[in-house]
Amino acid sequence: MSKNINIILVSALYLPEPHVSAHMSSNLAYYLAEQGHCVTVLCPQPSRPLGADYSKHKYALKQDITSENKVNVVKLSSFTAPESHLILRIQESYSFGRAVVKYLTALKDLPDILYINSWPLLSQTIIARFAKANKIPMVLQVMDIYPESLTSKLPFLFRSLVHRPLKLLDTWIAETAAVIVVISENMRRTYTESRRIPSDRVITIPTWQNDSLFEHGHDRISACKHYNIPADYFTFLFLGNIGPVAGIEFLIHAFQKASIDDSQLVIIGDGSSKADCIKLVEQLNASNIHFISDPDAANVPLLQSMAHVCMLPMKKGSGLSSIPSKLPAYLFSTKPVLATVDSESDTARLIQEAECGWVGAPEDLDWLSDKLRNISTTSPITLNTLGQNGRIFGLKYFSKSKCIAQLAQVIVSASLDELK
Q: How much is the pTM?
């Protein structure tokens, strides 16, 4: 990276929001700035997760510009929709795209390249049109496949009406990009086969975790005491977004059916389905299922240290296009992983390749309850071996230092190719 370039990172999520994309964008921005590049981040005012209090940050309703670690962060004034509502999310995507283009239009000097990690599909379209019209190379970050992720949740008749035009729109966005960065091989195949994007323009770089956070480890008993969780029970743990695709209700039913003595299920996180899950636990009178809210990513190693086994349930079809960001964190915590995901998913393949846990079909209540009972009697030596396998695999494929350098190189190379 010998030539310094002017880079604008467009990120629909950014710090202090605790989401993976927010941390990815900030990590990337800081790394590029350390390499001597001029880096500006465009993002909305913080709003995630739903109910989070950002009043102490004193962000204005109008555009707000700060400098953080040699990075200019511009928090744009646009509509935000932390609640899971289709119409509001469409409005949010459109509003953010317009706000980004408004900012770019007012610039005296346009950037050498745009990195786009934005809401699909409207904001991406609006920004891509501007980039194409002004001949600015664009690196498109894809965290999930649209419209497939959307239309799979719609009624069949409505799905058939909207899928084709939205797929054509996504294909046009992809064709506009100089490079498309995806986070799994299944996603890469979607773009090279379904969208017919040349394979040399689609690059797989998985979501990373800051593995240095997990280096020192935590004492399990102390962690349980810190969060007021019984320490002498065999602990199955889920940490992540409790949303419609996570399959937490299924996990609760399976754990209750397993009826394992001296065991507990700890569910950590927030999301649109959390209230329903809490209500379900109350109806089942399941005193050995505990909920914790702790959105701070820095606490993930401490939280996951309470686990004997980490859980990764997903609803059928929901895990085919991406790898859940919780998987690398599980691996770095040196914990075995029990996943119920589609057998053809990247998640299933990686767990099996890493030899770090068990994989079963989604929403198979009998299989999961039986597996929970079997695992609860597994020897600590076996559990530790599986966990160590996962950590070795995670360091090889999901470490922050490796992945962030790869992504930065992609961005700089795409810019230099256009400048030749």
A: 0.86
